[in-house]
Predict the 3D structure of the following.
Amino acid sequence: MDCDYLIIGGGSAGAIIARRLADASQDKIVVLEAGRSDEDDPAMLDLSRLDEQTEETEWGFLASPQRGGPAVLRYSRAKVLGGCGNHNDCAFLVPPESDFAAWEALGASGWGPEGVQPYFGKVEGMVQVETDPPLSPTSAAFLRAGQELGLPHLQFRDRIAAGVGSFPLNVSGAARQASSNCYLHPLSALPPHLQVMTGTLAERLLFEGTKVVGCQTSRGAIHARREVILCAGSIQTPQLLMVSGVGPAAELRHHGISLVADAGGVGRHLLDHPDAPLIYSLAATAPAGALTPCEAAMLLHLDKTEPAPEILCHFALRLREKYTTGGDICAAENGVKVTPNVARARSQGEVRLSGADVRDHPVIDLNYYSDPEGYDLRTILAGLSFCRKLKGTAAFEALGAVEMAPGPEVQTEDELADYVRRTCGTVYHPAGTCRMGRAEDPGTVVTPDLKVKGLENIRICDASVFPAMVSVNLNNTVMMVAEKAADLIISQT
C-alpha cells in the first residue's frame, strides 16, 4: 500500500494531525492504530463508565521496580483509537506560561507562550470544555477544607495558581471529547483520502539510507511518499525508533539491531508526575461523582522561588485499584484519596528495549526521586505534609475523616519518605523521551519543526517531544502540539 502521509498512532495527537492534513489537501493519509476503534463503545465514550473499560484496551506494561518500592508496577497505556484521551479522567488544563518559556529556553524555538497560545485556541474550537462541572458533596467539602487552610477558590480554566477548584473537563454532557471523537467520528463519514486502519501494529520503520519511506506493519508494508509522522506516545515512539535502528548505538548492538542512526537521546529523559496518596476513611460512603471520581483539585505554591505551583493534588472520591501502580495502597472502607504530585519533577528515567521485536514490552525505568538535588522528594514530602492538615479542618471533621495512609504512626521525614517509595505512585504522564531542542544538543531527538535529527521524511508528534514537563495533566498540551505540528507540516509541504 502507498500513501502520502503515514501517521503511526491514532491517539490524542495522531487523530488531530490526520484530520487537519485531510482537510488541507487531497493527499492520501493513512493512520495506523494497534488497538480497536472506540466508536460506539459506551464504556469508552461515557466518562462516567470509565471503570467498565476492559484490559483489551490496555497494553499491559509493567515498569521496572524502584528502590524501596513494590516488585510489580503496572504502567497504564491505552491501546485504542483516541489513545489515553479515552482512558483518563478528562482533566483539561492549560499549563502556566512559565512552562513554555522553559521549553523555549531549552531550544524549542517558536514553542514559547506566544507560539503555543493560538493552538490551544484551535483545540478549543473542536473540543467542548466543561468549566464548571457538577460537584459531589464530598468534593465540595474538600474545596471548603482547602479554603480553611487559606487557599482561594479558583477557576483553574482561567489561571494556574495556588488554590482549590473543580477540574475543567473535556466532556459534552457525559461524553468524552477525546481527539478521536472530536476530529474523526463518525469514521464512516471520513473523506475517502483518509483511511484509519485499526488493529494494525507498526512493526518497524522502512528506510532507504537515512530516508524513512514507510513502515512494516502486521498487515504488510505501507510506503509513504511524503512523510511518516510518529505519534505512538512516550513509551512506544522511542521503542519503535530503536527496533528500527534509530537510538543509542550500544543498546541496538546489544539486541542485534542494525544501526541506521546513532541517536543517544532516544528513550532517555523520561519525565513523569510521581505522586503519593493520602487515604482517608469517611464515616459514610462518599456519593459517586456525577462524571468522574476525580472532580476537584488543589494547587500548592509552597516554594516561592518556583515560577508556578509545584504541587498538583487530585482528590478522588473512591479508591480504584485498577489505576494504581501496584504499590502499598491501603484498602480503606469508604475511602477517598488526596494525591499530591510533583508538577515539574526533575528526575529522569528511560525507556529501553527488552528485545528486538516491537511486541517485546519495553523496559520502563521511571527512576523516581533520583535527581541529585533531592528536589522531587522534598517537594512530594512538602505536599504530603500540607495535605495532612486537611484532617484538622471543620469540613473534613464533618465527614468523619480518619487518615488510614500513611497513618498516624508515620510522622518523621524519613518515615514519610519510606512511605512515598513504598507506594510508588504516578499520574501516568510519561513525556520527554524524544525531546525537542537545539540541533546541536546531543540529547535532543527532534528540532523545533519536530523533524528527527539525522533522518529524512519523519517527524514525531506526541508527549515524547516535550523538552520539559508541564505542570498539569498532559492531554490538552498533547492536542496543542498536534495542532501546531499539522500547521508546520502543511506550511512546509
Notes: The first strand starts at residue 2 and ends at 8.
